[in-house]
């Protein structure tokens, strides 16, 4: 018996919810029809009936906001759009609410709030070109409203920020180039090889045969560099020539002496018979 009662309550609840959903849908449909007829007061009543059943119904809030906007009731419209983005469950619904909220602030010439509303709309749908255009327009109108002195200060600030960014980029590029050069030097086999060869030559023991050959070349008179003789001193070549002349003179004297010994005094021959 209890189970039967339980299921009866469930069916009744489900039917009630369906009935409410149907009523909400009918009221919203009625409101849309009245908007097309530009009967904004009648449309507002229909949407409010839907909201009386479901106060957080985003569709009814959004359509009611549009009705206020078309009827030039901008303050009420901004409130409805604010409620719409609050209770919306999808990014697309949030995007439409913020976009129309921006339109309301543009009508009120509150360009700062309009810029912020369009920015929030783009956060939910970055690809919407109409929102992007309205955002740029609101930003431009906001800049024109600033006093000349404040505008000049903003321009200087923007210029300073741009210069700072450019300087940071240059420093980063220079740092990257220095890093690349250091890596290139570390990887250069020629430079490292040359230094290695020099170090090897310095630490390598000399070949005794090469050293002896080098000393013989140094002792060779042909390889020795002739030093100019000092004043009053004979050069090695002059000494050599003088010795050769003395030897030649001594040789001539010796040859004469030897010649006399050979000739001597004539000796008569004796016969051995």
List the SSEs and their pairings:
Layout: H1 2-36, H2 40-53, H3 58-70, H4 74-87, H5 91-107, H6 111-124, H7 129-145, H8 148-187, H9 189-203, H10 208-219, H11 236-263
Helix pairs in contact: 1-2, 1-3, 2-3, 3-4, 3-5, 4-5, 5-6, 5-7, 6-7
**Strand pairing plus helix content: what structural class?**
mainly alpha
Main sheet characteristics:
none
Report the radius of gyration as a whole number of Å. 58 Å
| CATH topology descriptor of the domain at 2-146 | Serine Threonine Protein Phosphatase 5, Tetratricopeptide repeat
Which second-level CATH architecture of the domain at 2-146 applies? Alpha Horseshoe
Helix tally? 11
Please provide the count of β strands.
Answer: 0
| The CATH fourth-level homologous superfamily of the domain at 2-146 | Tetratricopeptide repeat domain
Distance between the termini: 194 Å
| CATH C-level of the domain at 2-146 | Mainly Alpha
Question: What's the average pLDDT?
Answer: 76
Percent helix among the residues?
Answer: over 70%
